[in-house]
Amino acid sequence: MSLRLVDYRYKPDAIKGDMDSIRTEVLDFYANLGTKIIDESQDQDTTDLHKCVAYIRDLIPNTDKSELCILAVGALGGRFDHEIGNINVLCRFSNTRIILLSDDCLIQLLPKNYSHKIFIQSSVEGPHCGLVPIGMPSGSSTTTGLQWDLKDTEMRFGGLVSTSNIVKGDIVTVQSDSDLLWTISIKKL
Q1: What pLDDT, on a 0 to 100 scale, did the predictor assign at position 63?
Q2: pTM for the whole thing?
Q3: Rounded to the nearest 5 degrees, what angle is found at the Cα of 167, between the Cα atoms of 181 and 65?
């Protein structure tokens, strides 16, 4: 087995999941480096991402979990059922900011009844974006900072969803009576 130097530089504190897709030699390599291995193969009712988010939240003392931000890399761009499962994790942990990142885009949940201010890093993200109601229709969504702003707009599956929109500036605001998924494209570097 040949391991690259990068394999030694980025040692995770823990590897947690049902262990159905990790190669034995990779698991052994990190275990020998001191990485904590948490095998939850008995739990087939939650995804690996769900298991990891729950683990991270449990590590944090009894403080406000809404201050926590988790970046999940590689949670998109594979099998559609896995992607939907990972998006479901955003909804199951709606009081924790979780960002799903791929080579092409990022997705995060914007919980209902909040005024969200999104700061756009135009050197690495945009201009394409979208807002998708999740869980239930949106009776009223309003935005600023988009080429096609929404004004008390109703959105639902089977009706209007905001796709292929364009960010116009450095700040986008969003307010909705329903949870929305925010997605924005990532620029190729």
Answers
A1: 66
A2: 0.84
A3: 40
